[in-house]
User: Fold this.
Amino acid sequence: MLLTGAEIVVRCLAEEKVEYVFGYPGGAVLYLYDELFKQDAVRHVLVRHEQAALHAADAYSRSTDRVGVALVTSGPGVTNAITGIATAYMDSIPMVIISGQVPTAAIGQDAFQECDTVGITRPCVKHNFLVKDAKDIASTIKKAFYIAKTGRPGPVLVDIPKDITIAKAEYEYPKSVTMRSYNPIIKGHQGQIKKAVQLLLDAKRPMIYAGGGVILSDCSEQLTKLVRTLGAPCTNTLMGLGAYPATDKQFVGMLGMHGNYEANMAMQYCDVLIAVGARFDDRVIGNPADFARIARKIIHIDIDPSSISKRVKVDVPIVGNLPDVLDDILRLLDGSADRPDQEALGEWWKQIEEWRRRDCLKYKQSDEIIKPQFVIEKLWEVTKGDAFVTSDVGQHQMWAAQYYKFDKPRRWLNSGGLGTMGVGIPYGIGVQLAHPGSPVAVVTGEGSVQMNIQELSTCKQYRIPLKICSLNNRYLGMVRQWQEIIHGNRYSESYMDSLPDFPKLAEAYGHIGMRIEKPGDVEGALREAFKRKNDLVFLDFQVDQTENVYPMVMGGKGLTDMILSSEDL
Amino acid sequence: MRHVISVLIENEAGALSRVSGLFSARGYNIESLTVAPTEDVSLSRMTIISTGSDDIIEQITKQLNKLIEVVKVVDLSEAAHVERELMLIKVRATGKDREELKRVADIFRGRIIDVTDSTYVIELTGNTSKLDSFVGAIDASLILETVRTGVCGIGRGDRILRL
Ligand SMILES: Cc1cc2nc3c(=O)[nH]c(=O)nc-3n(C[C@H](O)[C@H](O)[C@H](O)COP(=O)(O)OP(=O)(O)OC[C@H]3O[C@@H](n4cnc5c(N)ncnc54)[C@H](O)[C@@H]3O)c2cc1C
Ligand SMILES: Cc1ncc(C[n+]2csc(CCOP(=O)(O)OP(=O)(O)O)c2C)c(N)n1
Ligand SMILES: [Mg+2]
Assistant:
């Protein structure tokens, strides 16, 4: 069938069962937009800034198991999208980005709205392509989806010059892809898996450290089985929250810089550690030399060999796809005559309970002023722990991670690797479109929310009833916290004057705004907001300006060197 | 430690910049990089000379393998291998220096491939240290310009890097 390049692109997206494309038009993609106009299999969501298109597509993917798709024009369309691409890249989110490019003959001429898209995006994509012939479009898009979602997932960009969208070519969507240079490993090495199982069975103080890989590969069920079979404590990284149910007694909370006391202590003092789809990030293990100070055997399962022994040396590396490797481990555990040492486990749990009694997330309640932690606790109660929660970046993000107990995977969306302020609302858009009718809360701060506030307009257009919970502390709080602790209370540029009246701003966009000033009003406001199923409600919580996130492990310190409250300073 | 890393990579536009970009983005050392198509023109072969601790070299090979267009990566320096580099060196050759330069070139099995009244271009192949010694052996003030290809390497005997 002879079709134009633009027709082919849209057919390919339909073939991949793409439900939504998030994007913004421009000269280089006019033919693509014309084809979108002529069909209704693939729906387009018009954002107000390309960065938001990328975040929304990213969130669509994070909250489902599908590939997110974004479409942007050449030049400024692409440069605006970079932050969104890099955000997805750092958290290994599968996405396909289609970008327009100036016509082939104009490439390299400093043409209007030209930029070297393949060059600019190279360091923040899993792979990218420049299509130079309309007959290559279908196979390239097929490859892009395949690369994005297999192996360690990531964003893949396909740059298409304008003339290629006009040119005609024979169309047939390839049924499958084989690439001699790209063959992700699926099965783990059986010898290594046996070794791991034996180590786990012989452990006196086992510890399970699970991360975003569990969410990305949808294997919470196997993880939960493993934790229960071993009777061991389990911690989740910021990216792994929801991988193991947070309300379960074997869950010891998040670990790392703002992790729970008991989680960090158990990480340090376990004798066998199994890392499951987690990458020993610097915010997670603190000072690597200090972490290595205590001998323990480490098993690391990851699909990306370069994640293994990057920062922390491991004893049993297992390269493979988590669901496959966990199935193998569970089968061997079931079949083994050995059982975990109950007596040793009893001692280990006694120790963990003692750490737990420190109650590290305790905070001083107040009748006068709203504590930010309290808002999250109430949010959890009001939504019965079953909402989708997106977050921006800062203190509010950490409080959301600490106090909202996620029991299910893909419910918690935030930017962990890049730490991108401004993701909150666009993430909400992506999640809500993927899960119409489900409650979606956006936890944000007055700083972050202003980085993509224009998306309130997109929410209006597509009737996206987010519940935006802004923990308004009139400070770039996370920055202020570091300045308080490290820079002698010199609050250099972390206070923001002349904030808008957020409820009024929300109203100007056609939504509902509320300002909440008293602790006693928090629950009522949340209940009312969530009752309004079809409305976006912006809740401007005026919270304690001086509150800090604890526990805290300072940069360069060991994981057990935690500041538990302001009294420790 | 110095390592000789051989990479088989799809012969596609931009593949080289993915490799060089990887080295600069991650702060890895790169002493030299050579690349050209193989007998199968759909593939290119690179030889990269890098230095670093074992941990860093391990990351380098893992990161190279992660590039979608890379087909195979081998650290040649893990076992017996040979390395060769080509140098063209233009020297001022006048008076009694003409004889002397020719003599030194002969000792190093170099060939004079261009001659004028006042200059020679000498072609020399060998491993890096041989080329370095040649440069050291001639009077530095006579050297007008040098150009080196960088090292290419291959495993000895049955060690074969191919599809
Ligand atoms: C302000 C701020 C504070 C932070 N504080 C903390 C903190 O206190 N604690 C904390 O944990 N984080 C914190 N972070 C986040 C941190 O920066 C990292 O993003 C996070 O710790 C990484 O999570 P992860 O190890 O689960 O890896 P991810 O980035 O989720 O990576 C997933 C891993 O799983 C692997 N994988 C993917 N798919 C598969 C598969 N199918 N099979 C096998 N393996 C697979 C990948 O290769 C990768 O190695 C903070 C971030 C910010 C912005
Ligand atoms: C785009 C971007 N710029 C700067 C930062 C650095 N940064 C991290 S947290 C933070 C403050 C966030 O303020 P706010 O959204 O009000 O949240 P709070 O910490 O007060 O809860 C800043 C500036 C960042 N993460 N992202
Ligand atoms: Mg703030």
The CA atoms of residues 436 and 464 of chain A lie 9 Å apart.
